[in-house]
Amino acid sequence: MRNGYRYYIESPMQKCFRRLNTKIALFLLLLTIIVLSVPSSVSAVLPQHVYVLIAYDEEWVSLAEWPYYYTPETLAHIFFEVVSWRFLLFDIQFIIAGYTSWDSDDSISHPVLRLNEAIEETGFESDLTTVNGYRCDILVAFTDQPIYGSWGIANDTLGAVLVKHFTTFWGGNHIDNILQHEISHLYGCEHHVEEDLDCVMNIYPAYLDWPDWINVAEGMLTDNWCDICTATIMSNRELWGHVFRGGGLGGGGSYETIPEKGDVDL
Amino acid sequence: MKHEKLVKRLKVSAVILLAATVLTVWMAAASAQIAHQALDDDEMGDNYYKIIWYDAEEISKPSTYWILEEGEADPYIQEALTDLGHFSHCFANETTFLQQVYDHDAVWEIEFEGCYYSTGACYCYDGPGLMPKFYTIHFTLSKQLQKGAVASGVMLPFAWIAVGVVWFKKVKQT
Question: Does A205 touch chain B (CB under 8 A)?
């Protein structure tokens, strides 16, 4: 106590903390401003939105009616969503833009011709075909018509895949594995031929005993990707679709390339 | 009483006849399917190549067999015998494996260094963007199917004869 005033002597340590607190507060304030103003730039990987046109033929319609008791759209939707979830691993988000049907020619059995038929009849052109106001990036065609020599086929130039419904006693429904395999082709994955390699791209034969008595590719019995395929898809994840800049805290998001709204083509 | 016996016999004959017919149709259909698979080999285009997958498993001594030392064996057969239970593969134009097994179709089991093996094969096409479908060529199954078809083909006339006899007796009695 001196001259009626009480003095508080601040130690050097206390002084240091006081200054540091001020600095931390200023830093946090600055960080909050940045996050609120540019929300998407904080995210490490931006989601890739891929718009999908789903097509099905008359055999698929019959299959949906029996034994599934669904509409063809619902059945296709179920299988597609199962696979779609698996690609979220790569921040690839498939969005169904719409459904259409095509009339498959029973006299065709070659997989390439069958896929070409689906592409021609649906009039699909990647990034040009507009359905429900969205430009479609890839075509996924479902069929129950036999395809010679394959259960599915992909055209990685045109962005189109065709999958055949197939079930076994031991493996259950394989169409999700086939679809995952074919979409992986669109992202540059290639076949592996290796026993016991847990990868959907593995075509090493696996024998399913009674009552199936059939060889299937090992890739039809798994929904995993090996390290090579995971890296391939990750590096090619922007091949199809548009980078979506999410709204975050700041509100509505935007696309790097905005899908144009337009009339329904199909 | 006699009438009841006759009806019973007729029923038995009908069942035999039905069973034989079903068996014949099934065997014929299965054999045709295998033949159809073999005939469709060239349907795929040039961008797709055919791969033969083959395997072997050790078995007990069969009644008939092919001694491997008797002829110059495809190296792929020997590879299958030394890597039992695993599928080995090669391109279709690289092997005479299938041809050699076909050539020895009566003795598709193989004797090699004192052990006996059964061989099997399947094939598929590989190419751009394809999820391959495997076509199984199982020689033992194929052979059994042929035998079955022959057996049921023999049984069928006998079944008809049985029915004829019963019907003839019935007519004679009345």
Answer: yes
